[in-house]
Amino acid sequence: MGILMDDNIHAPTVTSGPSTDGGPPRDLAKLTIVELMQEKQRIEDELSALSSVLNSHGVNMNSTLTTFDGYPRDDIDVAQVRSTRVQIIRLRNDHKDVMRFIDSAIQDHFANTRRAQDASTANGIPGSGSDLGGNTTPAGSAAGSAGPPFARVNSVVAASPADQAGLKAGDTIRSFGSVNWLNHERLTKVAQAVQQNEGRPLIVSVSRKSDTDPSRNSELQLELVPRQNWGGRGLLGCHLVPL
Questions:
Q1: Which InterPro entries match (predicted)?
Q2: Can you give the residue range of the structural domain that contains 62?
């Protein structure tokens, strides 16, 4: 006669300690932005591999690991699934930490760039009033803080999440959540951000040409919530093209 297992067998138990088996965790504060990007890619590669392990069992992070009467399922390796889930939870937390440091490093980079531009302006060096995207902005503007545009909105479907957020065809994207000109990888990271944040707001920084003065741009911060069942295809309802 078998032993009845805990009903919460499918709930991973995350123990304390280093997040990976490769030694003590790295001090993210001491990494350069390039090293942070490499660490981010390493974590994402590991997460992808671990997700494949779950997929091979036909389960996900929320699938029950017990039968209807409380016994462990015999069609999967329960121990491996639980271990994999624990690793995924740890790596997701590591990923959040890395993204926080990346965002901070990017903001510091552009703050330093802005200070250098302001110093050049004060010294009378021409051309220093333009942001990194090549669009002239007023002194003290935060337009360049998100970096130069890396994508353009090609089209927006009416009543879509993108439309409701206020995106318009012709807008250029400076940042899409944590995605920017440094890490968008030909928009593949935008697609990942959309998938990972379904139903949750993403802040999108856009640059939009003025209707009255085409030589000037407006800088906007829009809140976009990717979602299904809005009446059209995809989670956004817009088409982006890389610049």
A1: Nas2_N, PDZ_6, PDZ_sf, PSMD9
A2: 28-117
| Residue 1 forms part of a structural domain | no
Written as one string, the DSSP assignment of 174-235 is EEETTEETTT-TTTHHHHHHHHHTTTS-EEEEEEEE-SS-TT-EEEEEEEE---S-SSSSSS
Q: How far apart are the C-alpha atoms of 154 and 175, rounded to whole Å?
A: 16
Q: Report pLDDT digits (tens) over 205-223.
A: 999 988 777 778 888 999 9
Q: Are the C-beta atoms of 185 and 44 separated by less than 8 Å?
A: no
Instruction: Report the distance separating Cα 163 and Cα 230, nearest Å.
Output: 11
Last residue of a domain, one of 117, 141, 174: 117
Q: What is the pTM of this model?
A: 0.45
